[in-house]
Amino acid sequence: MLRTIVSLIMLCLCSSIHAQTWQCDSLGKSIKIFNSLSEKNNNKWAMSLKQIFPLNKDNEIEITYILTCSDSIPRMELVALTEGWLATVFTTPTNLIEVSNQDQLVCKGDLGQVAFDQKFIGATRILAPLEIRVLYKDNRVRLSLFTKNYRMAYANIGQLESGVISISETYPFNEKSKHKGAYSMAFINTISKLLNLANGYVSYLNKHSEDSKIDIPEW
Fold it and tell me: Residues 6 or more apart from 3 whose CB is under 8 A from it?
């Protein structure tokens, strides 16, 4: 079995020199747990991660965190910061943003390839979509990241299989699933990418909160 291409996440939640400090203790705990469960065998690793990151009620991969700020920050500034962060994630984020106002942001994009498993008899490639939802409150943000399904393609001599598949039908959630190695890799890498995105958002807020202050007119 091919070993996963995922790089273990380094715990680097920011300690900021700015007066405004964003933090999320539960995200730090999730990253530590992810790293602690690392296995050379992807099937075992994926099975362990399933206990920590179960699918939501819609059979989607979802991670949600509440980020809090040590100082007051206008929602207009939060909107600008979030859109600035998206510009570091996607080449053309404005084309992917479906909703952006002082209450929430919804953006739909792509995580790209999360698994490629090549064996002598054939190869499996898996892509994953990404949905980002941000809800704004005074001095806090609710960040939710979703992967709703996989797009899979399998090819060998004389056979081609492709399509969208529910994550609940794949390993480790369905232990009778075909392509267990590829789906284990996909689940591990999807969780890794989502955690990295969440951690990147916290880091971006800490780095740019002071720089992006918006002058609010006085009455």
Answer: 40, 42
Q: Provide the total of helices (H) and of strands (E) in the chain, helices listed first.
A: 4, 8
Can you read off the two tokens belonging to residue 185?
A: 């890799």
Residues 6+ apart with CB under 8 A from 108: 96, 98, 129, 130, 131, 132
| Whether this model's pTM surpasses 0.70 | yes
Query: For residues 162 and 46, what is the distance between their CA atoms, to the nearest angstrom?
Result: 23
pLDDT tens-digit map of 47-101: 999 999 999 999 999 999 999 998 888 889 999 999 999 999 998 888 899 999 9
Residue in this structure with the two tokens 């399998």, named with its chain if needed: 154
3-state secondary structure of 110: strand
Q: What's the burial of 212, exposed, middle or buried (CB within 10 Å: 0-12/13-18/19+)?
A: middle
